[in-house]
C-alpha cells in the first residue's frame, strides 16, 4: 500500500513539474512573439518619410566621404607642386635656369627621336610579302614601286638593293649593307646631344653645390658671430642644385634608354629583312 502511495506521489510531482515547464515555455514564446509584433508595429507606424530620410542621410554621408577623398588627393598634389616650386626658387636663379634649360632641350630631342622612330617602324613581314609578290608578277620595277610607296628605313634599303639588282647579286648585297649604315646613322641622329645633357645636368648641379658651399664658408669667415641659420641656408641652396641636376639626368636617362632599345629593334629588323631580300633576288634570278 505504501509503495502504491509513493508511486502516485512521484507521478503527481512529475506531472506538476511538466506542467510548470510547459507554462514557462509558453510564456517565453508569447513574450518573444509580442516583442516581435511590437517591433513590426513600430516599423509600420513609423512614417515612410522618416525611413526615406534615414536612408537618404546614409547615402549623403557615403557620398560626402567619397567626395572628400579626391579633394584630399588634389590638395596633396597641389602642396607637392608648391613645395617643388618653392625649392626650385630657393636653389638660385642662375644654376637652376641652366638646369631647367638642359631639361627642356633634352626632352625636346627625346620627343623628336621617339616620334621619328615610331614613324620609321613598319610591318616588315607585310613588306616582304608585297615585294615578293611584286617580283613574281611585275619584276624588279614593280617591287621598287612598292618600296617607293612605303615609308621607313627597311623600305629604303630594299629600294637601294632592288635598284642594283641588274648589276648582280653581289652588287645588290653591297648596296644594301652600305645603305643600311646610312639608315642606322639617321636613326641615331641626336643621341649624342641627349647624352650630353644627361652628363651636363648633374655637373651643373655639383657646380652650384660647390659655389654655394664656398659662399657659406665666406659668410663664416666674414662674420665674427656665426649664426647657424645663415650657414645652413647657404648649404641648403647648394644641395638643392645637386638634387635638381640629378632629377634632370634621371628623366633624360630613362628616355635615352628607351630610344636606344627602339633603335636596336629597328636595326635587327633591317638586318633580317636585308637577308630575306637577298634570298628573294637569288630566287628571282634563278627563276628567269
Describe the structure.
The chain is mostly helical. The chain folds into 2 domains: 2-45; 94-288, no CATH class. 91% of the residues lie in helices and 0% in strands. The protein is built from 9 helices and no strands. The chain has helices at 2-45, 48-90, 93-120, 124-138, 140-148, 153-163, 169-187, 191-222, 228-287. Helix 6 (153-163) packs parallel to helix 9 (228-287) and helix 7 (169-187) runs antiparallel to helix 9 (228-287). The protein is elongated and about 95 Å long. Mean pLDDT is 74; it is low at 1-49.
Number of strands: 0
Instruction: Supply Rg.
Output: 43 Å
Order of helices and strands: HHHHHHHHH
Helix content: over 70%
- Mean pLDDT, to the nearest integer, reads 74
Our estimate of the beta-strand percent is under 5%
Content-based structural category: mainly alpha
Key terms for this structure?
single chain, 2 domains, 9 helices, 0% strand, 288 residues, mainly alpha, disordered N terminus
Summarize the structure.
With 288 residues, this protein is mainly α.
List the helices and strands and how they pair.
Layout: H1 2-45, H2 48-90, H3 93-120, H4 124-138, H5 140-148, H6 153-163, H7 169-187, H8 191-222, H9 228-287
Helix pairs in contact: 3-8, 3-9, 4-5, 4-9, 5-6, 6-7, 6-9, 7-9, 8-9
